[in-house]
Inverse folding.
């Protein structure tokens, strides 16, 4: 594999001239530009990004930390961030915590070891995470995509999950249901607590009893939606509506119901949350509270790159809201495929 000295010899120039060609070509005359470019092409020379980043102290790489990548929501978030960042000259590498606090703390404690110019933390699920990150943001630019936080020291893209789940739960009460179940994520998770608060507030406002047997917890996966729905429908008095904490859980609910000959939404109505692509290609299409995922990701990348390129700039906050889109899982007259 050719290196800089090989290019210099082929072009009949110094190593410093080749370096200028790679980093500041505007400083070279047209003659030298042509000579070096020809040598680069003939030798099929590929500059080392690692070596260049050591000189410039920049990697043009962003790290992204998410709870997991199995949940389609985080896969879509990663896709949006990667696509938009690449247009701005940055690559993205994703790290997962697998919902493990110890793993998250290892990432934070070894923040200097990230081979990246900045980090996007996405919906990390601990009460103290904001304060923990707040203590290290002077070491590397950071942006949070999160629920409601109270720190103005960090770049943050916010959507209140409490309010968002309240909206979709209130929508379900507006359909006249009285027996409404809620299938949530892990019971000890901060995000799950936020979501349950939203569901609880909607039930209290509608004067609907929250039955203990109607509240289910598990991981945010399709199979947990399936198994929890199985338990709910075997109750002596099963629910007529299920609010799922995310669209993956909602898919699991609908899979169980369809396999056991329940009519949706006549026997049981189901709603989700997030607005992932699966919610509108699944049959029946899923009523969901759609997060503006693309806009949130673009905002997060813009904030982070601004901080990378202008270290002294002030941190910013952007607040987004979700929008309910009806599918056939609650409204038989809704489109088969939701236009999101």
């Amino acid at each position: 594999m050719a290196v800089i000295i090989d290019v210099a010899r082929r072009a009949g120039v110094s190593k410093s001239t080749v370096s200028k060609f790679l980093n500041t070509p505007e400083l070279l005359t047209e003659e030298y530009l042509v000579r070096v470019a020809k040598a680069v092409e003939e030798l099929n020379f590929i500059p080392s990004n690692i070596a260049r980043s050591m000189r410039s102290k920049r990697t043009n790489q962003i790290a992204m930390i998410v709870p997991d990548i199995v949940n389609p929501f985080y896969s879509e978030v990663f896709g949006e961030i990667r696509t938009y960042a690449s247009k701005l000259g940055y690559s993205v590498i994703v790290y997962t915590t697998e919902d493990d606090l110890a793993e998250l703390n290892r990432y934070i404690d070894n923040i200097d070891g990230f081979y990246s110019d900045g980090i996007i933390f996405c919906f990390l699920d601990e009460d103290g995470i904001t304060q923990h990150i707040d203590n290290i943001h002077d070491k590397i630019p950071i942006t949070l995509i999160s629920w409601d936080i109270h720190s103005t020291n960090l770049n943050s893209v916010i959507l209140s999950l409490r309010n968002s789940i309240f909206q979709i739960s209130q929508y379900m009460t507006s359909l006249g249901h009285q027996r409404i179940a809620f299938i949530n994520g892990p019971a000890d998770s901060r995000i799950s607590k936020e979501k349950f608060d939203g569901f609880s507030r909607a039930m209290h406002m509608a004067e609907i009893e929250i039955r203990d047997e109607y509240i289910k917890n598990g991981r945010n996966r399709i199979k947990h939606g399936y198994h929890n729905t199985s338990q709910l429908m075997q109750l002596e008095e099963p629910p007529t509506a299920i609010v799922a904490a995310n669209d993956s859980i909602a898919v699991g609910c609908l899979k169980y119901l369809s396999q056991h000959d329940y009519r949706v939404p006549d026997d049981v109505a189901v709603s989700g949350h997030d607005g992932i692509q699966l919610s509108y290609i699944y049959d029946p299409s899923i009523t969901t509270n759609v997060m503006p995922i693309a806009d949130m990701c673009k905002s997060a990348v813009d904030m982070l790159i601004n901080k990378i390129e202008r270290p002294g700039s002030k941190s910013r906050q952007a607040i987004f809201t979700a929008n309910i889109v009806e599918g056939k899982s609650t409204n038989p007259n809704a489109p088969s495929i939701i236009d999101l």
